[in-house]
């Protein structure tokens, strides 16, 4: 990170899958008029490209090369991979599970690190993921660790999938989510963990608006304006 970019403020929002961090990050960024980074999308895009290209998902170097060569663009709600909108494809559970697996590969994380840091643009960035506050933006003035009960998260994901027209089984999602949580929290490289200076927010019983307000209140408590 260069000196000029480190002066651009960042709010990081880390947490387990389906904790709502993506939705919260977008809403906070909208309130502040900032850029948003969905880091998970980059790992999901890599997983999709690995699958589409027939790359061996166990070959860490080959997977990292796929990530290095990704032709990606974020255009509002559209996620473009080589000119094709794959926003719905990368949200499928099989892609999410593959993304969780390959996310443990050090060469892949290295390949995506600078690409993620390049999103740090004025007037500010809200970045969501699993290691935003611990690895990617350790100097962020506000770090949020968003938690939620695993069953509440599974129910949210089940609802999201059904609303998008995908079939979903709650018990299967719950099992997959527990396995993914364990994998994310115990991986050797950049495990899912709250940064020492992060503010932990449990969104299990909070609405989206309430959670967004908690984050904005933390931001304003640092002496910054809460919104545009």
Give a short synopsis of this structure:
By secondary structure, this protein is of the alpha/beta class.
Question: If you had to describe this structure to a student in words, what would you say it looks like?
Answer:
There is one protein chain. This protein has 228 residues and is an alpha/beta fold. The protein has one domain (9-204): Rossmann fold (3-Layer(aba) Sandwich), CATH 3.40.50. It has ten helices and eight strands. The protein has helices spanning 3-6, 21-32, 39-53, 60-68, 93-102, 106-117, 132-136, 150-163, 170-186, 208-221, and strands at 10-14, 35-38, 72-75, 78-81, 84-85, 125-129, 142-147, 199-202. The strands form two sheets. The protein has a five-stranded parallel sheet with strand order 2-6-1-7-8. Strands 3-4-5 form a three-stranded antiparallel sheet, covered by helices on one side. Helix 3 (39-53) packs across helix 5 and helix 4 (60-68) runs parallel beside helix 6. The protein is globular.
């Amino acid at each position: 990170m260069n000196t000029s970019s480190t002066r651009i403020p960042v709010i990081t929002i880390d947490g387990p899958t389906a904790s709502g961090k993506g939705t919260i990050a977008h809403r906070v960024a909208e309130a502040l008029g900032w850029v948003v980074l969905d880091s998970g999308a980059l790992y999901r895009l890599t997983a999709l490209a690995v699958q589409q290209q027939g790359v061996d998902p166990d070959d860490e170097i080959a997977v990292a090369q796929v990530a290095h060569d990704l032709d990606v663009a974020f255009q509002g709600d559209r996620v473009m991979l080589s000119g094709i909108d794959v926003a719905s494809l990368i949200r499928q559970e099989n892609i999410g599970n593959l993304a969780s697996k390959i996310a443990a590969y050090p060469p892949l994380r290295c390949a995506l690190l600078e690409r993620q840091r390049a999103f740090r643009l004025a007037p500010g960035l809200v970045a969501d993921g699993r290691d935003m506050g611990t690895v990617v933006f350790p100097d962020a003035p506000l770090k949020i660790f968003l938690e939620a009960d695993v069953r509440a998260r599974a129910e949210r994901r089940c609802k999201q999938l059904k609303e998008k027209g995908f079939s979903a089984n709650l018990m299967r999602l719950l099992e997959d989510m527990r396995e993914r949580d364990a994998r994310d929290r115990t991986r050797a490289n950049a495990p899912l963990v709250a940064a020492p200076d992060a503010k932990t927010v449990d969104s299990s019983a909070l609405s989206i608006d309430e959670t967004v307000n908690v984050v904005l209140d933390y931001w304003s408590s640092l002496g910054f304006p809460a919104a545009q």
